[in-house]
Structures are given as C-alpha cells and as structure tokens.
Amino acid sequence: MPTSQDMTTELDPGLLDALQHQVAVFARRAEQTRLGGTGQLRNSMDRAAYLLLNRLDQEGPMGVKALAAGMGIDSSTVTRQVAPLVDTGLVKRTSHPEDGRAVVLQLSPRGLARLEEVRASRRELMAQVTEGWTAAERESFCTLLTRFNSALSARQSGLPPATDTESVPTS
Hints:
Blueprint: H1 4-10, H2 13-33, H3 47-59, H4 64-71, H5 75-87, E1 91-95, E2 103-107, H6 109-129, H7 135-157
Antiparallel strand pairs: 1-2
C-alpha cells in the first residue's frame, strides 16, 4: 500500500501547489466576507452561529454532547457558542422529552426566521458569485467542495479517506 509520501510524488507537485494556494486564498476571502450574504444581512451572523442553527434546524432538538459530536468540536465550545444564541432568543433550552433531567437545545421560531433570512441572503450571494456558471458547473463545484470538506473532516477525525468517486462528475 503506498504511503502518503508515495502518493504525493505520484501527483503533479505544481498542481498540488496551485490547489493549496487556491484553498488558502478561498479561506482568506471567505473570512474577509464571511460569505455573509448581501444587502443588510451581509456579515450579520457569524459562522459558528450559522452552523449551530443550521444543524439544529436539520437534525432537530439535541443535547450539547450530540451537537458537539455532530459538528466535530468539544462540548465546552458548543456551550460557549450557544450561550449568546440562547440569550438572544434564537435557541431554547428545553427538557429532554424522555429524561426530564436532561436539557436539549432547540431552534426557536425566532431562530428559524433569522436563519431563513440569512440563508436567503447567502443564496443571493452564491447566485451573484457564480453568475455565468452553468447549472452543471455549480453542481460539480458543490459536489467537489463537499467531497473536499468531507475528506478534511475525516482526516481531522483520524478516519480513512472516503474512496467514493461515483457522486463526483468526471466531465
């Protein structure tokens, strides 16, 4: 089985240099704009809040430990990030339906409304940034970016990289 070093030397070093440079530029630009959207909602919700609210919306109420595990961060970080969301009424703390002693976090109606506003603003930004792209190009970029993020996540978790290439367009 080839080692990481063997695999790197088999690939075009110039292409790998260009890729790492473009990822660095993307990270800088994403942080500068926070990919926050357009209009009045631009930069109106930080990345941590957006990711937490989005996960609660997609997966429903859950405890801090489950939320932290799903996001690949520790519980103390989630607790710290959720506190201002609870204070501003975007997230509610409620009793666990099966164990009244446990607390679960739940997206409030106000949180859902705010999340929808930010999503709409960010969709508009994505439409503007990819103006002139075909639907196939947007889909391909999304597929590859998802695959790239999944590989980074697996690497950080110590898992072997996924080998699924069927969902990635080859043309």
